[in-house]
Write a structure and sequence with these properties.
The chain has twelve helices and twelve strands. By secondary structure, the protein is an alpha/beta fold. α3 runs parallel beside α5, α9 packs across α10 and α9 packs parallel to α11. The longest helix has 23 residues. GO terms for molecular function: uroporphyrinogen-III synthase activity. Keywords: Lyase.
């Protein structure tokens, strides 16, 4: 099988950029990996003090963990304050939005309740609505962006008190040169395929395009690409940003993302070229 057949493949992966580049090459693509974000840890002193107070008072009835990175950061600091806090957490429902937060909880010896697929904030909200009662208190560890307003509204209307803890924020990478080149290349029609492993990658790409004064041109360029998402949460975020997703990986893993793209994207491109005459 010819897989990517030397097509130009753009990825906005940051933490695992080298692995992503190697995967694209393995499947015969020409990689362009432009890190689009970095995680900036926030000061957790105030939120941790409030969390400890509520935990000791028995006023936390569920903790929802939305990302592996955020869950690890939060638990590391919580345990550093007092390891006994982890014992207290074992008596609470710890809800994991996917395998990564579940793995982070396991690394601290904690059990997890995995929400059903596609593991978006919708499933987390449905779980909280189904298991908590009016007046109870849910703590949500955020995922680099503020909680969706709809999630807050749905839980609030059910009388569930929500404390949202922003553990980290996503910022532009220290070196924005590759991201700037990626924006310009998309405008000029260089890449054939875009691989997305999070919605935040696309958000940052569009924000940087706007910063360069190229937002409309970048959107037009993206519309020409075959866009492949790592899973439903990423696809949903992309749709909210106005981008069509052509293919979605399942299982939602980086290797599968690249393989699905290599297997199907060249055919989609050929179909589009045929229709264009």
């Amino acid at each position: 099988m010819d897989w990517f057949a030397h097509l130009n493949v753009l990825s906005l992966e940051s933490r695992r950029s080298e692995e992503m580049e190697a995967l694209i090459r393995k499947y015969g693509g020409t990689p362009q990996v432009a890190p689009s974000m970095r995680e900036v840890k926030l000061d957790l002193s105030g939120p941790l003090t409030a969390f400890e107070r509520d935990l000791n008072a028995g006023d936390i009835h569920a903790v929802a963990c939305l990302t592996g990175v955020g869950t690890r950061m939060f638990l590391k600091e919580l345990a550093a304050r007092d390891p006994k806090h982890l014992d207290a957490l074992r008596n609470l429902p710890l809800i994991a939005r996917g395998s990564k937060p579940a793995q982070a909880l396991k690394a601290f010896g904690l059990p997890s309740l995995l929400v059903p697929k596609p593991c978006t904030w919708h499933e987390v909200t449905e779980h909280l609505l189904a298991t908590l009662t009016r007046g109870q208190h849910a703590v949500v560890l955020e995922y680099g962006e503020a909680l969706p307003l709809a999630m807050r509204r749905e839980l609030g209307e059910a009388g569930i008190r929500v404390t949202s803890i922003p553990v980290y924020r996503c910022a532009f990478p220290q070196d924005t040169g590759p991201l700037a080149r990626a924006v310009r290349d998309v405008v000029l029609g260089g890449p054939d395929i875009l691989l997305l492993s999070s919605g935040t990658q696309l958000l940052h790409f569009l924000k940087y395009a706007e910063k360069l004064g190229l937002l409309a041109e970048a959107r037009a360029g993206l519309a020409r690409l075959v866009v492949v998402s790592i899973g439903p949460a990423c696809s949903e975020a992309a749709a909210d940003l106005g981008l069509r997703i052509d293919l979605e990986a399942n299982p939602h893993k980086m290797g599968i993302l690249v393989r699905v793209a290599a297997e199907h994207a060249p055919g989609l491109i050929a179909q589009r070229l045929a229709r264009a005459g």
